[in-house]
Amino acid sequence: MAKLTKKDIRDILSNRFKDDTCTKLEELPKPNIFKDIDKASARIIRAIKNGENIAIVGDYDVDGVVSSVILSTFFDDIGVEYDLIIPNRFSDGYGLSLEIVQRLDADVIITVDNGISAFEPALYCKENGIDLIITDHHSIPAQVPDAYAIVNPKQEDCSFPNCEICGAQVAWYLVASIKEKLAIKYNLSSFLDLLCIAIMADMMELKGMNRVMVKKGICALDRSKRPAFEAVKKFFNKKSLQGDEISFLIAPLINSSGRMEDAKFSYNFLKSKSLDDAIDKLEYIVGLNNDRKDEERLLFEDSLKHVKEDENIIIAWGEEWHEGIVGIVASRLSKRFKKPAIVFSISGDKAKGSARGVGEVDILSLIEQQKDILLGFGGHKGAAGASLMRENLEEFRERMYKAAKTINPLALTASPDILGEIEPSAIDFELLEILEEFEPYGQKNPKPSFILKDIYVKVDRKIGKDQNHLKLILEDGNNTLESVFFNYDKEVRRGDRIDLLFTVSKNDYRGLVTPQLLIKEII
Fold first, then answer.
1. Does 258 lie in the same domain as 163?
2. Domain that includes residue 160, residue range
3. Least confident of 45-54, 280-289, 490-499
4. What are phi and psi of 315, to 5 degrees?
5. Nearest to 160 by CA among 60, 31, 48, 268
6. Cis peptide before 31, with omega less than 30 degrees from 0?
7. Where are the alpha helices (DSSP H) in 393-470?
């Protein structure tokens, strides 16, 4: 097979966006295309003018926290009072519940990034004269709640052209609609720094309008005067904030408070009024994130005994395994063993689990086949959740083993990000510029991976606090390449000749920019 040239790489990456119809902010669809958005914004304005009680109910992940920050900041800026609840993962569970509605003294409740399955709360609202406005982006169930208004692009009769947007974008569009109806001046682009984080963290497709918003948002994030982001730069000694900082630093930090304690910590951090205040809050969240890493390492090691080499899927569970961590562990298992994984936390007589797919495997479809023994399930092709009675775990596992036997082996290894084999001499500053041109990378625009064959290992060194990362210096006679293998799973020694799968990143050391290989796999 011919090795890739730089022109090949540029052509492949450019071809990903040939059908994009939205290529700049001016081409974003208008708010009024959403079903029910005019009705929702008109009701909110009436509540504002009449001094009615308004409440916002968010969600504990990055998208839900950012959605809550966007809508509440807008209300702050225009002088609107409101109550806000971000459900606690451990005491409240997910989304709008009857108990949450009963806790609120509200005339109008607005959900952000949740609510499309809130049937009982919607009925209670209707019976008690509360107008429920649902803004969400999750898949539409067979029946929808009987709410005052539902703003969700996935509704069949919604004309919005892009249904693959996140909850924060829907909340932002609601702000745009209210602003338009109030005929006030308000800088909607001031939220782009937050929106790019929510879009990437919620793994939305980075094509069309999402790509435009993230690309502009990353520039806004880097220039942002929001104390929270200035604190991140100062605390972590970052000169700039780019797409990688969102994926590997900012999003995990924001997520950690909801995973470990309460998402309100991250909400308050993002709304910090001063740099000192933001740094104080960030220090606490960093502590939670470190706790999360420790818990994740222990739980991952514990889960390894559940891996069965001859099965196409991993099903693991444990007593009181941390509910906020099981999804990350499922993700690590699926990446390491190249097969889908479901990890359950057992509490009392119930088990709640998170699932991750791999390659082209539809994990939600496999789970749905067992719905007769499940208490609930949901998600999408690549990531899902399920709950069931403890007594049904064994049967669920056996059924899933049987269902997974039908998986095509090619589906496990399908990877649209592998572009092909490359010469060591092609890994240079010019390649970095080409790869940078097609950022941000994510869903539907995966970061390109390449293959190097028969490369010589000149230096091997273990790095990191736990010595769990590997730094290699590679050479082919004429070229020397630096590489890092995080959480390495294969021993490599000086003098070895290896084949490897990797991505290319920019290593900026004292102003000298060089390519660095991030090894994904020693083949």
1. no
2. 27-220
3. 490-499
4. -120, 115
5. 31
6. no
7. 393-404, 409-413, 429-437
Task: Report the domain count for the chain.
Answer: 4
Encode 24-51 in three state secondary structure.
Answer: CHHHCCCHHHCCCHHHHHHHHHHHHHHC
The whole-angstrom separation of Cα 102 and Cα 99 is 5
| CA contacts within 13 A on the Cβ side of 242 | 10
Q: Is residue 103 included in any domain, yes or no?
A: yes
For residue range 167-193, what is the model confidence (pLDDT) as tens digits? Answer: 999 999 999 999 999 999 999 999 999
- HSE at residue 279, side-chain half, CA atoms within 13 A, is 10
Query: How far is the first Cα of the chain from the last one, in angstroms, to the nearest whole number?
Result: 17
Q: 296-340 pLDDT, tens per residue?
A: 999 999 999 999 989 999 999 999 899 889 999 999 999 888 899
Q: What is the CA radius of gyration of the chain?
A: 24
- Shared domain check, 278 and 262: yes
Distance (Å) of CA 156 to CA 37, 42, 90, 163: 15, 23, 33, 10
Neighbours of 85 (CB within 10 A): 20
Cα separation, 63 vs 224, in Å, equals 19
230 and 215 within one domain: no
- Mapping DSSP to helix (H, G, I), strand (E, B) and coil, where does residue 191 land? helix
Same domain, 66 and 202: yes
CA distance 210 to 251: 17
